[in-house]
Amino acid sequence: MVSLAIESVNQPEIMALIEALDTYQKPLYPAESHHGIDFSALSQDNVIFIVARSADGAAVGCGAIVLEDSYGELKRMYTAPSARGRGVARTILSALEAEASRRKVSVFRLETGYLQPEAIALYERAGYRRRGPFGDYTNDPNSVFMEKPSLPPGYTLRLARLDEASEISTVIGRSAREVGSQDYSSAVIEGALTGAFGVDTQLLRDQTYFVIEYSSILVAVGGWSRRRTLFGSDSRSGREPELLDATTDGARIRAFFVHPEHTRLGLGTAILCASESAARAEGFSAFEMMATRTGRHMYQRHGYTGDTSIQHPVGDSIAIEFFPMSKRDQLTQR
Fold first, then answer.
1. Domains with residue ranges and CATH for the chain
2. Per-residue pLDDT tens for 163-177?
């Protein structure tokens, strides 16, 4: 049984834990592959540092999350050898995630070494999935980069079912009309809902579309595709159902909509992380989308680029402005 608390790193026994972590890691990797932060960095206001103590008060584990603008980065996770096998690391991880979520962090990221299979297994069991480098990291064959979206209590993310097409259509309509009204006129929105926006049942059949529900009600939708179609519902002409080549093509990021009463909770980010992870599992390392004005800034925060817009016709003399956007991983496979 351990107790957890947010504590200062500037304590001799805590410093000893960090030094023990460094002693373990330094022989495993070359100097340029060491990315641990020092004691002064761990003492900054944007760091949550949690210590696990045994029943006798001894410090037996620690971990930190550095709060960045659009994510929280896990750092300095360590459990003393005498306390391993008791779930201490998982307890620290859960506490860090809970405290960061309380501070509105919507996605957790980390870098660890490929020679630490126990750490990788811990993160995978906790829902983390591999991704490419982020922040100031560069591609490093010794590094494994991972991330996990954070959902507020009561929200659940899962794959959509074909029999939910009508409910999904309702979410899309409300999101387009109410959230999208900040960026488009009602005439443009209604025109887009005839084909540019709407349910693509191919995504549901392919099991590449996600929903988030709250109290058994769908409140956010979105997904990805292994097919060439870039956007649009079943009724849009010019669809391209052909399969993409994961070695040369970018997976399609598709049809993200959030219910107006559930915005700014990180739901879109959670679906984006799930979509990218699923696409990476099928060998994709690049991603493409047709973004709206409304969603464009979220995608930019997650590394997507594309500043040139296009006008897509949605009716007589009416067009909606879209932004083709893309990004590419530099993910090292081991």
1. 3-149 (3.40.630.30), 155-328 (3.40.630.30)
2. 999 999 999 999 999
